[in-house]
User: Fold these one by one.
Assistant:
Number 1:
Amino acid sequence: MNDKPVILDADNLIAGYLPGINILNGCSMEVKEGELIGIIGPNGAGKSTFLKALFGLVPVRDGAVTLGGEDITNLRADELVKRGVGFVPQTNNVFPSLTIEENLEMGAYQAHKNYKKQLARIGDLFPVLIQRKNQRAGSLSGGERQMVAMARALMMDPHVLLLDEPSAGLSPARQDETFVRTREINKTGVTVIMVEQNARRCLQICDRGYVLDQGTSAYTASGQDLLKDPKVIELYLGTLGA
Amino acid sequence: MLRAALVFVVAAVGITAILSMGGTAQAATETEAVTTAATSGGTNLLIQNLFNGIVFGLLLALASVGLSLIYGTTGLSNFAHGEMVTFGAMITYFLATPQAVSFPLLPFEFTVNWPFWLAAPAGIAIATALGWVQDKIIWSQLRRRRVAMIQQMIVSIGLSLALVNFIQWWMGGRPVRLVTSIDPRKQYGPISVGNVTLISMVIAIVALLAVAFFLQRTRLGRATRAVSDNPALASASGIKVDSIIRIVWMMAAGLAALGGILLALYQQGIGFDDGTKLLMMMFAAVTLGGLGHPYGALVGSLIIGVVAEVSTVWLPPDLKFATALGILIIVLLVRPQGILGKAERVG
Ligand SMILES: Nc1ncnc2c1ncn2[C@@H]1O[C@H](COP(=O)(O)OP(=O)(O)O)[C@@H](O)[C@H]1O
Ligand SMILES: [Mg+2]
């Protein structure tokens, strides 16, 4: 893994929503091609904000983001989609008044010539979505929405995928399914950066983890090392079953 | 959603109060004429008023569908939408009238005197272009600087005042007629209606169907609905949100202009503040139908139009808009999200 080139590099990001209030105070991350990166940290640490800053949805005030060596700091999200980055937000991640099929179509908005082909490919991954393609996404359960959101992001065949808590609100069985699926997507060559509440499960499958606290990336190590790190165990994993 | 609905209702009621203190609206006088015609025919007043209500509802729908699309995609309650209605009719008058016209501040007069069939599409095209200009120089700048909605709404109120005064200064305070020939009413069973009104209805229906077709059957239209649902997610899906909003402003301005032209034909003239007076009914229609819902404006407009006209069978015509607003309040008490508005499930 370590000999692969760096694909995404975030250098000391300062970012926030409201003028004068920084949520990220120097967040750095270096991701190599094909890696599966897990980001863990307490609630409100700025994990979602970090992903949104990478994706041009929160203004970056200082620092830089590069993708494959090209500066992409503060590029609009639709420009990043064009460059092969996909994003599944934590909340509000479907278009509720659109049908499942229309949601997927929006995912392939920039590549509508390949739409049918992509739809068939995604249909193999999520057959249930095709069976219910005319149902409004607003009427789906949390788990079903998560599936639509993931499928929508995959419609452009991204080579970097940002996932914000894909397992949140799912039953344990569905959570497992999500982690397995994420790993499978990663195995096909997609670089995945995944924010997770379920720190243990996330660290088990990821190549490398980042711990984010109070808007700074505190430290990084391989998933296995973080699982054994006494401080991580105490703060994020709890002692039970460690 | 509920808060926005309340803002609309308060605004609508406030504007009604202000307007009812002023002079009588041109529209009221004209519809009374229609009512008289129906009564003198000795035919069923209810059916005639129902029909008048549908006509008015269709014109209102044309005017307000853009208001609804703008609200849906940007969150802005555009108080300057009424002037877009007036403007379309006034430009058409400017191009079609055989009388001498002039540009404000320019010292020379000239006549354009185009035939109506040319002046009306040209008026709509110019209004559409102004929708583009408006978004380019005002609204997209405010969005880019992340100016909050209340502030943007106040800008739109200011713009409304500026535009209505500009139109009065340019075109004068008296109502103008787009066509000089009169449209004789013919009797169809219990309904008395002129050909121009019938053609206007057909044009309104075709235009509204075209909007529905656009939203439902075209990729761009579906993207517009996606932006209405969630602009950030639309952007994250690869949609250029600002381009979609630009198109929405052009459509909104063009449809408002068409609505204004047909309204001017229907009520046989248009005054500098007719669109401004219509704004309250547009807000009411959009809120009643379901804020931001693409078809809410149509449903709400038809209900407002029919209730307003039919109420005159039993109630004084001066109260007809108040009755329509009463219906709005009752519906919102039962269905806070409006008729078509969906209460989305949480989680
Ligand atoms: N849209 C927003 N506007 C203003 N502040 C926000 C917004 N979203 C999140 N925040 C603030 O940013 C901080 C970090 O939030 P977030 O990135 O969602 O944390 P995490 O995902 O790690 O739980 C929190 O203090 C939160 O209140
Ligand atoms: Mg979060």
Number 2:
Amino acid sequence: MSATVATTVPRRSRHAHGRSATLAGTGTLVRFMLRRDRIKLPAWVGGMGLYVVYIGAALPVLAPTEEDLAAVTPMLEQPVGRMFTGPAYGMDSPTYETFFAGGYAPYLFLIAALMSIMLVTRHLRVEEQTGRAELVRANVTGRHAPLTAALVVALITNAVAAVVVSVLAMAYGFGAEGSWLVGVGTGTTGLAFAGVAAVTVQLAEHSRSAAGMAGAVLAGAYVLRALGDMAAVGGSALSWVSPLGWPAQTAPYVLDRWWPLLLHLALAVAGAVAAYALQARRDLGAGLLSARPGAPYARPALGTPLGLAARLQRGAVIGWGVGILAIGAVDGAFTDVMADSVESMPAAVQEMFGMEALVNGYLAFLAVFTGYLTAAYVVFAVQGLRSEEGSGRAEAVLATSTSRTAWVGSHLLVIAAGAALISVVTGLGTGLAVATVMDDWALLGEVLWAHLNLLPAVLVVLGLCAVLFGWAPPLLAPVGWAVVGLMIFVGNFGELLDLPDWIASLSPLSHPAQIPAEEFAAGPLVVLAALAVVGVALGLLGFRRREVQAR
Amino acid sequence: MSGSAPVISASGLVKTFGKTRALDGLDLEVAQGEVHGYLGPNGAGKSTTMRVLLGMLRPDEGRVRMLGGDPWADAVALHARLAYVPGDVELWPNLTGGEAIDLLARLRGHFDRARRDELCERFQLDPTKKARTYSKGNRQKVALISALASDVELLLLDEPTAGLDPLMEVVFQQAIREAKEAGRTVLLSSHILAQVEVLADRISIVRQGTVVETGSLRDLRHMTRTTVIADLGRPADGLGRLAGVHELTTDEDGQVRFQVDGDHVDEVVRALAPLGVRALVAHPPTLEQLLMRHYGDAVEPRDEPVEVAR
Ligand SMILES: Nc1ncnc2c1ncn2[C@@H]1O[C@H](COP(=O)(O)OP(=O)(O)O)[C@@H](O)[C@H]1O
Ligand SMILES: [Mg+2]
């Protein structure tokens, strides 16, 4: 018996030094990650499920018979519609299922991509950055175990999402194969972006830059798909370059083809392979993109709370600003396409963009679109205060003779200025694009004015975030993002889905006049601005009274 | 230490986080111009005390005065007169170390640019590196340099040497002596007795949110016990009978091992001398040993925690 022991033990340990050693502990880590995410992941997947349920229920309300759908389909079929949704397969004779796949499924793909990027970044780069990965790796955990575990968790989550989406779509009587295509397409989109994020977490040393790089890939995919699908019904070459184009190219309920999803799997595998290779070449905690030497001394501006806030918020303003400007300018450049199609559009569509001239309605919508993106920037930027506080950096500043009011106040001031800057620049950029394609320079001023008109509404979101930060900091992220989600929902689907007024009125963007479709009205702006100021004041008061939190 | 009012005086501080009583009737007094060692095992309440002194936390009960003011109500005015180094320094990842040093010092008020450069040199910190590339020790150096270059009356240092290598610890000790010579008061927390011993005029030992001992090192000598391991040429039978010697053992090859109370070291060294000492090692007690002997605390082996579970 002792002989058996003597022969098996060395063999097993020799094995452990081989390839499998780098994966040791993967199973434990998978369970650990699933446990840490036991709220987050079900919330994401549940959110996707609810979305399908809501759309499935709303479509028959919107168009009581499938024939009624024909009246609304031009919205998806026109170039601008295709830009926002997809290649518009089957929109010549729409049914509930093709309308669901053509108009609403693309948002599922986006959500799955975002979920996967955040999942991978959270479990890999954030862990390394905080040093928690070091604690884990010091145990019997192989070098590749965390990466493998994160990918396995992404696989599990996206598989569950695929099943949930497919089953719920089938529950509305949508065709089985098409429903599986929508669901599985959602899952494989998630996997592909998990692969992308697995690479970016190797490159950047900081979780925000890692997530930002992956987000930039997603944004690039969105733009390529938008341009590609705009070019022709059924998409064009550019659509095929974009990972967001592939799930739409399965043409669920129309062509029902599976093979475009193989491209997702190939991207996911390529990403994973690259991530393993890159990981083997770097130290724990390090990134592959190294930092250049910087200033040995601080410039004079960096010696006041306002100077610090400006420096810390700078990146976010530039990043968001460039993105929002780009989207605004591209959308603006399609105004003439909108104008050309005015005559061919049915009443229901005209209603969606406002009662008056469709072009004016479209320009007003562009301003609203910028409005909710700017509101998203505001929520993101105020969350920076939370991470300053949680990391202890706020404490270091507040331990100097910087008052709490000065610290929060200067951040809020910089964020407000950032939002104003984004509005002005995007208004100008969009206006320029509109004026050029329409050959009417008066439109430049109108579009700029439409953007500025919405600024007080965006600042209400800042006021709300300030109140949350001052009085209930844990609610800042959930409530802040919920409000942005609501604004987008109301802005995109409000009139289409015939939402009750009280829901629409929850969005601050619903209150200002829809310039240039409506006449300017000062009343709502005064109220909104006052709300913003009261919110900020309350927030400052709250932060003075509460304790400064640390890890 | 006489005459002038204490720089810090806290009495009966209670601070709870849910069910945890982080501070449980804590009394602390720090006199003008002294280096005060604030010693306690992990989780004893040292950082919580610092955060109350900074007005980041409001105590549930008790009274605190610092530099003649109320830490919560007069925070801004008091902060102009002190510098704080947190236990776990986090910096802005895209600012360089040099920028962070200047920023914090300027936000405090007056600082000495020449002294700042000199400290960078002595601590061997490259101020042009982005903070995201710094190790824990380097981040700690940034906070320390900024604090030491500031023109303040009081330094609140929360485990400032936890990430420093031994060479840098010597630099740190020298810098603290200079601060003391310049008339500054220093509150220096640590969970390692030996680190505080070399610097502190007085020590307060905190355990489970209460200060259990306070006094000069000499006052605390009775609490400490040095472990001695000696290689002797002659039998050491007499040693065991000396006052203050405990747990004497001798192994086959003549190595003796015993513990000696802090206030009897002198007699024991005399008694060892004629026994033909070939090698001698003396260990100072760890804080955990000390607390265990006096309060029966369980020893947690957690000097530098690098592993989570075993
Ligand atoms: N913000 C907090 N929330 C909950 N518990 C805390 C918080 N801060 C400290 N504690 C708890 O209070 C106790 C004392 O912590 P701390 O003051 O950090 O100890 P030390 O600095 O001496 O290691 C510990 O049990 C710790 O877990
Ligand atoms: Mg501590």
